[in-house]
Amino acid sequence: MRLVGLLEPLPEFLATNIRSRAPEVRCAALRTIHANAIALPFEQTVLFTTGALQRLSPEGLIAVGYHELSHLQEGTSVKFLRVLPRVLALEMTGPPTNFSRMTAIMRVHS
Question: Which of 5, 15, 35, 65 is least crowded, fewest Cβ atoms below 10 Å from its Cβ?
Answer without folding.
Answer: 5
